[in-house]
Amino acid sequence: MSNVLKLSSSPHITSGAGVPAIMWQVVAALVPVCAFAVFLFGLAAVMTLTTAVAACLVTERLACRGDASTLCVGSVAVTGLIYGLTLPADLPLWMTATGAVAGVLLGKVAFGGLGGNAFNPALVGRAFLQAAFPAAMTHWPQAMSGERFTSLPDSLLALPAMAPAYDAITSATPLAAWKFQGQAAEVSDLLIGMTTGSTGETCALLILLGGLYLVFLRIVNWRIPAAIFLTAGVISALFNSIDPTQYPTPLFTLTTGGLMLGAVFMATDPVASPLSRAGAWLYGALIGVLVM
Question: Which helix (H) or strand (E) holds 26?
């Protein structure tokens, strides 16, 4: 019997978990966040998340010339969910689909597909929408509306090239309320998500629990979100001690906006984030500084 010498690149010792298993575990961690988004914004959240995921899946398949095996990996499903969770629930669906196409093509396919992206594709899609449709991306529907399960916002079904007609009742995000009105939301409300904002950024507790689940499975590097939280918290505490009337407390800072969602599910992208321990701490600290 002949001996065969097999040569391969690192890692040489693995846990046995492939990319599909890892990606679908991330999807599982995002399910509670998506469910709460539906509870908070109703049918609008369902339509937004469904459109985001569907557009990402279709774009990926067309870009891969109909090869359905790439969809089974689950990577593009994760992209669609994270991307949809960063959007306002009343964003016109055609804008949601447009951003998804841009995110997959510019953030993933252009770099060679799975494992080659230099940036998180979900963030590329959101950045594209922020640049192309800034007004629509800064409009926030009211959370816990009494009609959220029986009707859709008029803006959601707006046609391309048409100015979306927004409902009369809107709500300011906690960050906007602090900036323009000096009002600080209760930290308890921020933790459980009883505030308005992007579809999936409101419930800090569910996001954190999802992150702990992935850390327990050793899917994400805990050092990255820890460095982000630590850096943002320290800087926030420093400025709050100087002028508490202008700068919020660290707890308010950590539980508002997209910081929690970004730190747990975006900054930990296994392709675009560092692998070494020192790199993870530095990477997270730099993100924390940029956020603040």
Answer: helix 19-41
Stated pTM of the model: 0.86
With b for 16 or more beta-carbon neighbours within 10 A and e for fewer, the 82-96 pattern comes to bbbbbbbbbbbbbbb
pLDDT digits (tens, 9 = 90+) for 173-184: 777 777 777 777
Do residues 96 and 164 make contact, with C-beta atoms less than 8 angstroms apart? Answer: no
Q: How far apart are CA 275 and CA 57, in angstroms?
A: 28
pLDDT tens, position by position, 64-96 = 765 556 667 778 889 999 999 999 988 999 999
Handedness of CA 35, 40, 43, 47 (dihedral sign): negative
Angstrom CA distances, 114 to 3, 58, 74, 108, stand at: 33, 15, 10, 7
User: Is the Cβ–Cβ distance between 137 and 88 less than 8 Å?
Assistant: yes
